[in-house]
Amino acid sequence: MNSIVIDNFSKLKLSLFYLPAFLISAILSLLYIEDSLRAESYIKIQQDYFFLLNSILSRYPSIQYNLTETGNALVVFSFLSIFILYAPKLWESLASALLISCMFSSFLKKIFAVPRPAAVFNNDSFIIIGKTLSGNNSVPSGHSITVFTALTLLLFAFMPRKLKLKIIWSSFIVITGLILVFTRVGVGAHYPIDVIIGSIIGYVSALLGIFISKKYNLWKWINEKKYYPFFITASLVCSLVLINKIINENFIIYYLSLLTLTFSLIKIVAVYAKK
């Protein structure tokens, strides 16, 4: 499996950055034309779409909450943990990509300082699922960045060779990603453009992570057995956090995460014990 990932990553070209550059330019151009580069007008231009999507998606609160938590770094770690053993090259890229995505998210949120829906609208005018978020950090959506960072890595890591299968695989990843990120509108945490921008940044972060890991091999130690205790410890800590979330929130996404993480932990311990 690791050889497949290495081979697929080696084929990637810098031209893959053209699409996100075009999309970001198109969004900025649209906002500029509509005089919506200021926080107030940025919110106003999409408030009708926000209320519409929120009212439709929030009809299924449990589904929305479970799906939106796929943007939680803890859940991402759990679901991808098995690749530490079978595709460490993916994890090398993921490590760089997550650091880059965190920097993007933190920097841009401070720069734009756009109030979240709960800080602008009457909280009784739309549905809020889960914790009420009311800070001035709406753009970009951090969950959306995380989701598309992980999915973009999976997209290119396991890209099929045949064109027909490439189209099917790419469509599946993109559609899945959009379903997941728009839950942020469904739970009342973000505006539609927030999640679109976040998705694009996640895509860019993943590509940067891949190219950086190809050139510098910063995380090659991930593939070495002697460092498995680090992942074992991290998995145990994450397991305790997930158990605490199950006790307090009892959502199926945490059960699935814990199940996946436990399976990975057993496999990693078994491999490490054979040294």
TrEMBL record:
Q: Origin, by domain of life?
A: Bacteria
Q: What Pfam families does its record include?
A: PAP2
Q: Where is the Phosphatidic acid phosphatase type 2/haloperoxidase domain?
A: 91-210
Q: Which residue ranges traverse the bilayer? A: 12-33, 70-87, 141-160, 167-187, 193-212, 227-247, 253-273
Q: Which keywords annotate this record?
A: Membrane, Transmembrane, Transmembrane helix
- Stored InterPro entries: PAP2/HPO (IPR000326), PAP2/HPO_sf (IPR036938)
Q: What is this protein called?
A: Phosphatase PAP2 family protein
Specify the taxonomic lineage: Bacteria, Pseudomonadati, Bacteroidota, Flavobacteriia, Flavobacteriales
